[in-house]
Amino acid sequence: MTDAPIQRLCVIGVGLIGGSLARALRAAGACNEVVGCGRDSQQLQKALALGVIDRAETDIARAVQGADVVVVAVPVGAMAQVLKGMASQLSPNTIVTDVGSTKGDVVRAAQIAFGNLPPTFVPGHPIAGTERSGVEASFAELFRQRKVILTPASTTHAWAVSRVTWMWEQAGAQVSEMDPQHHDEILAASSHLPHVLAYTLVHTLAGMQDKDEIFKYAAGGFRDFTRIASSDPQMWHDICLANRNALLTMLRRYSGELQQIAAALQHSDGSYLWSVFAQAKQARDEYTQTTQVSTELGVPSPCKGEGQDGGE
Amino acid sequence: MTDAPIQRLCVIGVGLIGGSLARALRAAGACNEVVGCGRDSQQLQKALALGVIDRAETDIARAVQGADVVVVAVPVGAMAQVLKGMASQLSPNTIVTDVGSTKGDVVRAAQIAFGNLPPTFVPGHPIAGTERSGVEASFAELFRQRKVILTPASTTHAWAVSRVTWMWEQAGAQVSEMDPQHHDEILAASSHLPHVLAYTLVHTLAGMQDKDEIFKYAAGGFRDFTRIASSDPQMWHDICLANRNALLTMLRRYSGELQQIAAALQHSDGSYLWSVFAQAKQARDEYTQTTQVSTELGVPSPCKGEGQDGGE
């Protein structure tokens, strides 16, 4: 499917994600002009100097004027305020999409900001990131072979969904659609729960009397397991609160399984332990095989740095 | 400190760890002859062909004869039987050491096998490994810049401890000493608990109705967090049972912290979440800075493969 380039793309929040999307679309010839908007004018000047944006605006209402596509790439906790800021200025033909890690709360924020959910609002979530942040960390290949989930409502214009799908495909991503609540349940399991578990482990160990020795003798297993505990606390605070119901459900399910492990240890029930470990290894090995292709093709590789997917 | 080379080294279990130690000591000129012992004669033939060992024995009693140092490099669950097998043949001058991931149970196994703890028995644990196994995966640099913990008793000969320390230093490792119970508590926290948590997460998700979608949309954070869930289930079954008391203590402490997180989510207590996440990030970042030098110097790097430190 070929589409005309986006005439004017407005990116609100020109950081790693927003900056990388602008770079990718420009590299693909998929947009002509990029307006960058943010609160920090120094960051915007940097984005201008790097050629990531063509024009800088600190006022949201002015930034979105005349844009055919607006991408909101701010932390989940700032979403409501940003959407409110553009509500009065938005033309009925302007597509708005976002990159938030949770979707139910973004839909609710949009309903409040706009009075109802605009048919041109297409909630989205690119499952990509690195441990670094800021426009200086952005690069055009960030979304190649990565997955993007869109969560349109039944009232969303099909042409708007199609345009946002095309946009992400131009950046190299694979796009699928999902109900926002289902998205939040899936991501609570695959992403939000692991982050909470890793944070909690490091917090538990850091509170122990022997913490210096514990960290001193920790090896590669610990390093990999806790890599995500180096992620931005504010971002994960926002995500956990935004998705607290789905996350609580997963936490309870996980805690229940952990209690069964503890009971098995208590009774030296080796066969239960073996069966859990063996089933987990099989599922993990199958996961690795399934994702191998996209891991090999995708950039960045899991070895590019610490704490990847800070906002996945 | 210079020492004469080991005249005859006996390695029982010529796999990744035993094979790598033999290679490292040979490369350093720290041993003259290596006798390899194992149940699988095909594996021993491979070790002979690779030049890792000079002589192969499937009988433990015969293998240890005339050795000045015996290294027991078998899974923790097989330790008791191996020690029993050599008990009648051991000369009072032969040093015996092991590489087990738990130490309290190895000390108990030795007490039972030998009637009491021989003053030449020096329990040890090299905190190193890769996801691969078998002699074909062994390499001389495995222990470079890695930590080895020895847990001698008050009755252990000082010269035996000194000799085992020297041996590991010849392989490039940093050696320290610890009480066996303390070792097991430290490793329960830094290694055994994370492995159980990772196995439990993958097992929990694999049991869900939406498992295909959950794994499909899992990204780098999940991949790193669950890498250790690809470790050998039998090895971790052995370790968990061998160290079940210390592991249970850690599991209870961790579950308690997880309950506090759940309570904070329940009450939308964002400041508690932020404080746990921020403290964890700080501790994790400090850990990374502290270990950066040894990570950079050490081999293999955390990126050499999946599931490193299978037996750490």
If you had to describe this structure to a student in words, what would you say it looks like?
The structure is a homodimer of 312-residue chains. Chain A is of the alpha/beta class. In chain A, helix 6 links the parallel strand 8 and strand 9 (174-177). Chain A starts with 5 loop residues before the first strand and ends in a 15-residue tail after the last helix. Chain A is elongated, with a radius of gyration of 21 Å. In chain A, 56% of the residues are buried. The first copy, chain A, is built from twelve helices and nine strands. Mean pLDDT of chain A is 92; it is low at 293-310. The interface between A and B is large, with 96 and 98 residues.
How are the elements arranged and paired?
2 copies of one chain form a homodimer.
Chain A lengths: L5 E7 L3 H12 L3 E7 L3 H9 L5 E3 L2 H5 L4 E4 L6 H9 L7 E4 L5 H11 L6 E2 L1 E4 L19 E4 L7 H13 L3 E4 L2 H27 L4 H6 L3 H6 L7 H10 L1 H23 L3 H28 L15
Parallel strand pairs in A: 1-2, 1-4, 2-3, 4-5, 5-6, 8-9
Antiparallel strand pairs in A: 7-8
